[in-house]
Amino acid sequence: DTEVTQTPKHLVMGMTNKKSLKCEQHMGHRAMYWYKQKAKKPPELMFVYSYEKLSINESVPSRFSPECPNSSLLNLHLHALQPEDSALYLCASSQDRTPPCEAFFGQGTRLTVV
Amino acid sequence: GQNIDQPTEMTATEGAIVQINCTYQTSGFNGLFWYQQHAGEAPTFLSYNVLDGLEEKGRFSSFLSRSKGYSYLLLKELQMKDSASYLCAVRLHGSGNTGKLIFGQGTTLQVKP
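Output (structure tokens, whole complex):
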């Protein structure tokens, strides 16, 4: 199984809503990532988890709250988002032992904030 | 700051060879990656260079010169399905084998018949 599965594929939410994005992998990877990608732009790193601990937060606003319940799951909790937060949210995972340790990306959740 | 430059767009003919260049100026270096991304899909890993030289993988090759901060991705025997965005990404040093992967803006390649 070389897949990173993200749910939902599409999400429309209001600015007062609370929602969560989910990501799952069963490759035994101990590093997991959240990226944000706007149209025609490259992915931008938001968070990195290493061994279920948050290791990097790229100064992301607190309305985005990551959570890593176990080594296979990664969540992104959303609250009080703004329309400019509309984007494709990509989850990725990688092993951390033998280079290249490339990131495997999920198909993403396309988020629209109205 | 971190700076990774790639051409925005390129066009090539089916069956031809195309070279996509990437130059980088980053605070540290722990490997350079090339990813392919079709419209509306996830990026997929193509190649990795951490030492100078050429890495070949089927129709795709990638070259790195660390002293020049330069890499290229070479695609041979182009096929229509190679039309996609190609992303150059640098992993920053000090973060082990995981951590910060900084992407360039991507090069949109259009393959014409």
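The mean pLDDT of chain A is 93.
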